[in-house]
Amino acid sequence: MAIRDYIRQRFFPHMWCPGCGHGIVLNSMLRAVEQLGMSKNEIVMVSGIGCSSRISGYVDFHSLHTLHGRALGFATGVKMSKPELNVIVPMGDGDALAIGGNHFIHAARRNIAMTAIVMNNRIYGMTGGQYSPLSGHGTSATTAPYTNIDHDFDVVKLAKAAGASFVARSTTYHARQVTDILKQAIVHDGFSVVEILSQCPTYFGRKNRMGGPSDMMEWFKENTTPIGSKAKAENPALIERGIFVQDEDKPEYCTEYDKVIERAMGGRS
User: Which residues form the Thiamine pyrophosphate enzyme TPP-binding domain (predicted)?
Assistant: First the structure.
């Protein structure tokens, strides 16, 4: 299938602001699905509320557009009822780590096989540019005009600590790397977390004087480095990208649950 076959073309043009990084994420994800040769009927996309969550409306997969912060809860129900399906959950700052934070850590703890894509643009874009759990100390937002004093989550460290068996990070500047990582994440038999740094020129970029979309993507280029690089040793402030965890031995939740059913049925016979 060609990429256009995975798109609901009737819903275009999309609603994202000019220069938003989420369209790049959509493109990279569709390329990953195409290269894997997956059928549309093999995939379910579950999203919550926000700029990132609109992706579910643009893909011609089975899709659920659900409640804010509850995408992983709905996705868990889908996976438990139809474990043969590939479940992809696109999330933004809030869906993943604010109102959805508890669902995030428990989905990771259970190691249920689905792919959580965390589009980190460090802002609440759809509702007016409020600061988020990923904005970071010292940044500005409409709700932090005198700068934000909250410290941000490190998505990779949080996912690792919570027990996710596949954890990776990249940026919209590194679109080909995103495609490669998503291919591995989607076929991984466990909970996969892929953080993608994505630019929001309309709010985060404007409020923090980071320039336009190309300037923000240039920032991703200059301020990230591959895992374990010499540059990281020389400049600890650089953000590492790549695959941090790829544990193929940790039991997957649906498989373990099937064993519970077998034991229960055997005990009754």
Answer: 49-196
Return all residues near 17 (Cβ < 8 A) that are at least 6 apart.
125, 200, 201, 202
Spatial CB neighbours of 75, under 8 Å, sequence gap ≥ 6: 44, 46, 64, 87, 89, 107, 114
Amino acid letter for position 68: H
Predicted local distance difference test score (pLDDT) of residue 250: 95
Cα 95 from Cα 127, distance rounded (Å): 13
- Across-strand partners of 114? 191
Q: Write the pLDDT tens digit of every residue in 165-211.
A: 999 999 999 999 999 999 999 999 999 999 999 999 999 999 999 99
Domains and CATH numbers, the chain: 20-264 (3.40.50.970)
Q: Encode pLDDT of 38-74 as tens digits.
A: 999 999 999 999 999 999 999 999 999 999 889 999 9
Q: CA of 85: how far to CAs of 82, 174, 176, in Å? A: 6, 28, 25
At residue 252, what are phi and psi to the nearest 5 degrees?
Answer: -85, 145
Q: How far is CA 48 from the centre of its chain?
A: 12
